[in-house]
Amino acid sequence: MPTKRPLNKLTDLECQAAKPGDPRLSDGGSLYLHPHKNGQKYWQFRFNWLRPGEDGQGKKVQRNAGLGVYPETSLALARKKRTKARNWLAEGKDPILEFQKEREAKRDSQLSTFRAVAKAWWDTNVGRNKWTEHHSQSIWRSLEAHIFPRFGSRPVDDISQVEVYKVLQALDGQMPIRMKGRVSAVFRYAKTRGLTKDNPADIDADDLVVSKTRHYKALAFDEIPEFISKVKADDCSRQLEIACILLIHLFLRRNEVRRLRWSYLDRKKRLLQVPSEDMKMDRDHEVPLSDEVIALLDELESITGDYPFLFPHRDKPDLEPMGESSMYSVLVRTGYQGKCTLHGFRTTASSALNNAGYNGDAIERQLAHKDSSVRGIYNKAQYMEERRTLMEAWSKAVATGEMERAKT
To answer: Could you give the domains of the chain?
Structure first.
């Protein structure tokens, strides 16, 4: 009697060597590799299936279940699929139908991730002209920066309320309230379409309200070198890398840095002259530039010098600065979210310089803090010599990791 061919007789070399139009290669156990004339090599599982007949007796027919194309579907994977098909047959199930169910489940899983649903929600609202272009881009960037890194790849039905709460609670300022509304809208969109039963962003807003008296989380001075090393190792553009480093050097707030224009730069005076409309306190402000900062600006000018902004928007470089969340996204990727804030680098600089004995009034003026006196409001150059000294000292400290004490 002929013996049944054992399983797993094929090798990868045989699969690779098969030519278009060659006879089918058998691996045993009803698994075949079919080298088609079109050049593709198809895996097939052949099986007998009882098809119901009009006489009620039924009729056995031979069917082929497609298992994929070699080499995208490897020999090892084809064998796993063969085992799965044989198990289904033993249970009286149709392998063709079961593989189809698997593919549909995988497709549905990919379409129901939070990011995929958020994109569908965003596209719908953009298509209805619900938002201005600027606002729509701001919404998407905020999701990319604050939400997608946390659970963007997860199915919406697999995300818990506790997870959403922890992500929102870790954000700064009014961002928890703003992002709660956006995340909740995505979950409502998913719920309406049967992708989830609940809205885990249905959280009491009072739990997310930040006190008006806020203390921004800040790194200690000796943690700055490691932070800069991680920024340099991050997979971001050199332009964004320089933005993050200049944020530390210049004492400016995030929005003040990203809106800087080349027209504000006075190389002869070694100053950035920032007009009131770009400052939080609505007052003109001057920033003395250290040697380290000048070197960074020289490099940056070779990258973005043809545009109005030091840090132009990726898609609209002639019209807008880079997005609000760009620098924050680096903070997230480098693992510093929750450990410090972008605003906190101002605190780090202030503490280090005060502890080193530099003029406290000059430090406050360089931080552009509110000064209600007439002299403070109109004298943008107040303490300028002291400010030049401390800015040079701070930049040198950032570059070397050592803080020199003020000369008395």
So the answer is: 12-50+62-108 (3.30.160.390), 114-208 (1.10.150.130), 221-400 (1.10.443.10)
Q: With helix as H, strand as E and coil as C, how does 18-48 read?
A: CCCCCCCEEEECCEEEEECCCCCEEEEEEEE
**Pair 72, 64: CB distance under 8 Å:** no
CA distance 147 to 141: 10
Q: Residue 204 burial by CB count (10 A; 0-12/13-18/19+): exposed, middle or buried?
A: exposed
Nearest CA to 357 among 385, 396, 390, 402?
390
- Residue 63 structure tokens: 């069917």
| Residue 213 in tokens | 């008296």
Cβ atoms 376, 382 nearer than 8 A: yes
CA distances from 279 to 95, 246, 296, 308 (A): 66, 16, 22, 17
Q: How are beta strands 59-70 and 265-266 bridged, if at all?
A: unpaired
pLDDT values of the chain reduced to their tens digit, one per residue, 408 residues = 334 556 788 899 999 999 988 999 999 999 999 999 888 999 999 998 877 665 656 678 888 898 989 999 999 999 999 999 999 988 888 888 888 877 765 654 556 889 889 998 998 888 888 888 888 888 898 898 889 888 888 888 889 999 999 888 888 767 788 888 899 999 999 899 888 888 998 887 666 765 444 557 889 999 999 999 999 999 899 999 999 999 999 989 988 999 999 999 999 999 999 988 888 766 788 999 999 999 999 999 999 999 999 999 988 899 999 988 889 999 989 999 888 889 889 999 999 998 888 888 889 888 886 543 333 434 455 788 999 999 999 999 999 999 999 886
Query: What are the residue ranges of helices labelled H in 323-368?
Result: 326-333, 344-355, 360-366
Cβ distance 363 to 386 under 8 Å?
Answer: no
Cβ-in-10-Å burial (0-12, 13-18, 19+) of 200 comes to: buried
Q: DSSP assignment, residue 69?
A: E
Return the SS3 of 172. coil
